[in-house]
Amino acid sequence: MMKRALQVVWIGLLAICSSISVQAADSPAHDLVRGVSQQVETLLADYRAGKLEGEEGLNNGVAKILDPVVSFKRIAAGVMGSHRKTASKEQKAAFLEKFKTELIRTYAKGMVGLGEFTITVIDPEEDVTGKRRVSVLQDAITAKGTTRIAYTMAQSRKTKQWKLINVVLDGVNMGKTFAGQFDDAMQRHSQDLDAVIATWGAEVENS
Predict the structure, then answer these.
(1) What span, in angstroms and rounded, lies between the C-alpha atoms of 162 and 64?
(2) What are the structural domain ranges in the chain?
(3) Which residues of 59-161 form beta strands (DSSP E)?
(4) Among 82, 107, 155, 162, which lies 20 to 30 A Cα-Cα from 31?
(5) CA nearest to 37, candidates 51, 21, 50
(6) What pTM does this model have?
C-alpha cells in the first residue's frame, strides 16, 4: 500500500510538470507549470545523456525544481495528523526532511522509469478565475494504460505563490493514504514517534 501511495505522489507531480494549465495563459499558475515543465524536461534529458552525477545528481536537480512548487511542509503536517500535537519542534523538522527526501527520490525514479507518456487535461466544469485553490483533472496515458489524476494547487494569501498541496490518483487520496500509514506505523512502534521517523523510508521501500 505504501508503494501505491508513493506512485500517487510521483505521477501526480509528473502531471504538474508535464501538462498545460487549465487556467488563462497569463495566469501565475499557468506560467509556473510551464516553467517547471521545461526545467524537468531539461533535467531528464541531461540525466539520460549522462551529464548528471548519477541518481544523486538527478535527485538534487529534482529537489531544486520541486522545492518552490510543492508544499512539503503542509503535506507532511497533514500526514502526521494529531500526532503532530505531541511532537517536538525537532521531531516535526526531522519527519519533514525524511518525508520530503522519500518523495523526491521516488519521484525521480518514477520519472525515469515512466517512459513515453502524454497528458490530457480535462476542461473545468466551472470558472476558476480568481480562485485561490484549483483542482485539475487529468489523464496520464502511458504504455500501461490511462490513469486519472486530480491535483490541487493552492495560492498563498501572503506570497501569492501557487503550490501543490494534494494529489489523488484513480480515487486514491495521497494525503489521506499517507496519514493512515503514519497512524499504522505509530501503532506498530508503540507510539514511538522517533522510531516512526527513523524507519519511515525503509518501511515504504519494503511494503
Answers:
(1) 16
(2) 2-206
(3) 117-121, 133-142, 145-155
(4) 107
(5) 21
(6) 0.78
